[in-house]
Amino acid sequence: MLIRKATIEDLPVLLQFEQGIITAERPFDSTLKPDPISYYDLEAFITSTDVQVLVAEIDGEIAGSGYARIKKNPDVYYDFEKYAYLGFMYVLPAYRGMGVNQAIIEELKKWTVEQGLTEIRLEVYNDNIGAIKAYEKAGFKKRMIEMRIRL
After folding, report:
1. Helix 100-114 and helix 129-137: axis angle, to 10°?
2. How far lies 144's CA from each of 19, 45, 46, 84, 121, in Å?
3. Domains along the chain?
4. Measured between alpha carbons, how far is 112 from 115 in angstroms, rounded to an integer?
5. What is the 3-state secondary structure (H, E, C) of 71-104?
6. What's the predicted TM-score (pTM) here?
7. Span 104-121, mean pLDDT?
8. What is the DSSP letter of 143?
9. What spatial distance separates the first Cα and last Cα of the chain, rounded to whole Å?
């Protein structure tokens, strides 16, 4: 498995991955607008110095993706000014359970440390048990539960 920085040439595959993420998340959030929607400006992320977009290649095929994006901490009461936010985590179904997600996260952790950051955060739907287990396996811990009511 090769973990590498994404390039503009990878964009067609990455746009398909984005739709895969949206499809997977629809059952967890009834407030998502009908298709077509987009979560990310992937081209801008790939070319940004504040975002590290990675892909995992297996036998020449892009099998998974993820990014870490530097974000400013809006809350002055924490002991860090900036943190890395993880997103765009996707693995093709044929490659799930092979450690692709873990390998991408490990490389994103290294990049985060190289940026001088000490905090990584992400969001995951409460009912997405598989994703929660994968993130816990990578060392993430639950911190806060967001609650809402639709009126």
Report:
1. 50
2. 27, 27, 30, 17, 11
3. 2-137 (3.40.630.30)
4. 5
5. EECCCCCCCCCEEEEEEEEEECHHHCCCCHHHHH
6. 0.94
7. 97
8. -
9. 47
